[in-house]
Amino acid sequence: MTPAVQSAAALQICRLAPVVPVLIVEDVAQAAPLAQALVAGGLPALEVTLRTPAALDVIRAMAEVDGGVVGAGTLLTPADVKAAKDAGAHFGVSPGATQRLIDACIEYGLPLLPGAATASEAMFLLEQGYVMQKFFPAEAAGGAKLLGSLASPLPQITFCPTGGVTPQNATDYLALPNVACVGGSWVAPKSALATGDWAEVTRLAQAASRLGA
Ligand SMILES: O=C(O)C(=O)C[C@H](O)[C@H](O)COP(=O)(O)O
C-alpha cells in the first residue's frame, strides 16, 4: 500500500470526527465497553497506544465493536506494524517516522499516520507521499501557532495535532485550514476507566464530537 493510498485512508478516518481518542488501556476487559462508549458519544476513530501489555488484545476486542475504526498508536518498529495489522488495526499512528517503519506499513498494508514536528520532518514525509500527518508533540512543539505557520508554505499537508491537546485549546487547532481532527487522551480519563464509568466517557465524547462545529 503506497504512502499516498495510506494517507487517503488516514484522511478519511481523521474526517470522521473532530477528535481521535488516544487510549491507554491496561485491562482487556475494558476494551469493548470503552469503545462502545466512545462510538456512542460520536467518536468512531480510536487510537489504542501500544504502551501496555494488553494493547494488542485491546485492539482485537475493539475491532469487533460496531461502528468503531480502531488504530494502533505508538508504532515504533516493523514488528509493531505487523502485530498491529495482525490484531485487526485499520490504521497506525506513530509519534514520528523512520524509513523502516514506513517500509513496513507499505509491506503490510497498514495506513500510517506518521508524526512530524518541524517543516523538514513534514517535507520528508510529503516527499514519501504522506499528505496526512500527525503533528506531535503539538503543544510542546509550538502549538496552533506553529502549525498555522506551516499552512501557507505546505498547504498540501493536513495534520492531526496530538500531544497536550485539551477541550480548551482544541478549537484553536480545529479552526486552522490544515487540520482535519485532533488527537487527545482526555475523553478516556484514567479515573473513568478505573471505575468503569462509561456514561462519563460517552458524555466527554459527546462534548468532544461537537468541538469546532
Ligand atoms: O503514543 C503515541 O503514539 C503518541 O504519540 C503519544 C500521544 O499522542 C500522546 O500520549 C497524547 O496524549 P495527551 O497529550 O495526553 O493527549
TrEMBL record:
Q: Which InterPro entries match?
A: Aldlse_KDPG_KHG (IPR000887), Aldolase_TIM (IPR013785), KDPG/KHG_AS_1 (IPR031337)
Q: What class of enzyme is it?
A: lyase
Q: Which GO terms describe its molecular function?
A: 2-dehydro-3-deoxy-phosphogluconate aldolase activity
Record's keyword annotation contains Nuclease: no
The reaction(s) annotated as catalysed by this protein in its Swiss-Prot or TrEMBL entry are: 2-dehydro-3-deoxy-6-phospho-D-gluconate = D-glyceraldehyde 3-phosphate + pyruvate
Is ATP-binding included in the keywords of this UniProt record? no
Q: In which pathway does it act?
A: Carbohydrate acid metabolism; 2-dehydro-3-deoxy-D-gluconate degradation; D-glyceraldehyde 3-phosphate and pyruvate from 2-dehydro-3-deoxy-D-gluconate: step 2/2
Keywords in alphabetical order: Carbohydrate metabolism, Lyase, Plasmid
Return the EC number: 4.1.2.14
- Family designation: Belongs to the KHG/KDPG aldolase family.
Q: How does it assemble?
A: Homotrimer.
This protein is called 2-dehydro-3-deoxy-phosphogluconate aldolase
Coding gene? eda
